[in-house]
């Protein structure tokens, strides 16, 4: 039985290529060792050469065009006195000349430093009139390649004996060391070709840690992390939970979709994007138009979300999961601003229907309905949309319908609204609080809903409010407590501290122990003043690239008119500021 290729593995591999093998055949060895067909590299080595080959496996093969501009370092053995047609040991000798002295070689090397023009070898993979130059030469045709600008950042003579010179070179992409050997000899008044060539470095990667073909395994793969992306010259962004569906579907991206490292560098054009659980999501490119960031897609590695998210438009168009619809769904509807104790009671009722085979879900809104109805008087949401989505995932829901409240949606009558949920989603069970209303101007209350339920063949449960210290738990009560700085009460009702989501915030260093930012988003902000806060930093496990527990650091926070300044007792470690919790 033919073994199926394992195309699930992904990572970067540092391979020690052997002399006498082509780069292509070396990749074939990698494919066999890893049992995968998805393999690429960031720069070919001639068959006579050995040394470092940076190999990309699985999803990371998409990175090939994004990280091929690395500078490189080589050790090259030049043989003076004879030139071959290929400028390397595989060709035929076509010229002979004198042997230069060590002093002559040392005298000409400095002239190659900096930006110079170089004519590539005729035997090369460069294309002329749609064909490889090397193929045209083998057909007996004359090939003239134009000089190209390259950069030599360093060149050093390591050894000189008889008719050989060992040099070490660091150079830009596109440099041909065979041509360099030819040109060094020409300046010495003679001819030469390369006897041996070893690539010792590609960008940030060194031959010293590369592996032989015999030692390759899936454990050899280096995962894509923020650290690796930085070494590859990229900036790093984390996606917010709310932005994942947009990213996976190629929709336009805004700055508010991302959590940024507070050492983020806006001069970097390419950005490595990671999902909220730190898995590598792909690459986007950044440009500026009228001083505003504009993002374009490079490539996307699609994720399978733990909780499926739908827009109201998708539900109305019948694009809900047919498997869920056929099984039937249990549902609760509301703003769910905070997922407080009262909401948890509703969640438990819906999730309990899973035992009956129903798929549990939520229909909610991008922000609290109070914010839609009275935007001028509204203080702000308890949680951001990203936090709300994370709360629903943690609760165990299998899907969420996120409604961006509009005038058209507001005009839907209650009966029509529920009929559509039954028809397009397979609604079988609904749990709501005693004061729940839906439909045009909220005209459909629980008594009406119970009548419609009989007609539309779904069941309804009314869940009583949760009372704490003689008062009903609600999002409005939580907002009042936040504005009164009663954070202990807030924590009791939310079962967690009040937390500002820092997605889309641009943090700046103001010293080794101080960072600042301007608040963004629709979340409620406590009054101006000084606070003790816990700052949550997102972080990667550098060894595996997998998610690890977010780091937390206690900080003094000064809040003034939407500006936050965080002062730490210790030096900061580079990372992504996910959120700020008020203690």
What does this structure look like?
This protein is of the alpha+beta class and 583 residues long. Strands 1, 2, 3, 4, 7, 10, 11, 12 and 13 form a nine-stranded mixed beta sheet that branches. Strands 27-33-30-31-32-29-28 form a seven-stranded antiparallel beta sheet. The model is unreliable at 542-547 (pLDDT under 50).
Explain briefly what this protein structure is.
This protein has 583 residues and is an alpha+beta fold. It contains 16 helices and 33 strands.
Radius of gyration: 32 Å
Q: Taking all residues together, what is the mean pLDDT?
A: 89
* Amount of beta strand: 25-35%
How many E strands? 33
Provide the helix percentage: 10-25%
Low-confidence stretches: 542-547
N-to-C span: 61 Å
**What class do helices, strands and sheet pairing give?**
alpha+beta
| Count of alpha and pi helical runs | 16
| Main sheet record | 9 strands, mixed
Shape: elongated
Architecture blueprint of SSEs:
Elements: E1 11-17, H1 23-34, E2 39-41, E3 50-57, E4 72-80, E5 82-84, E6 93-96, H2 102-108, E7 114-118, E8 127-128, E9 131-132, H3 133-138, E10 148-161, E11 164-171, H4 177-187, E12 192-202, E13 205-206, H5 226-231, E14 235-239, H6 244-248, E15 258-260, E16 270-274, E17 280-289, E18 292-300, E19 308-311, H7 312-316, H8 322-327, E20 329-333, H9 341-351, E21 359-365, H10 369-373, H11 385-395, E22 399-403, H12 407-410, H13 414-425, E23 427-433, H14 446-456, E24 459-463, E25 467-468, E26 471-472, H15 475-483, H16 487-494, E27 498-501, E28 508-509, E29 514-518, E30 529-538, E31 551-560, E32 563-567, E33 576-582
Parallel strand pairs: 3-12, 14-16, 19-22, 20-21, 20-23, 21-22, 23-24
Antiparallel strand pairs: 1-3, 2-3, 4-11, 4-12, 5-6, 7-10, 8-9, 10-11, 12-13, 14-15, 16-17, 17-18, 25-26, 27-33, 28-29, 29-32, 30-31, 30-33, 31-32
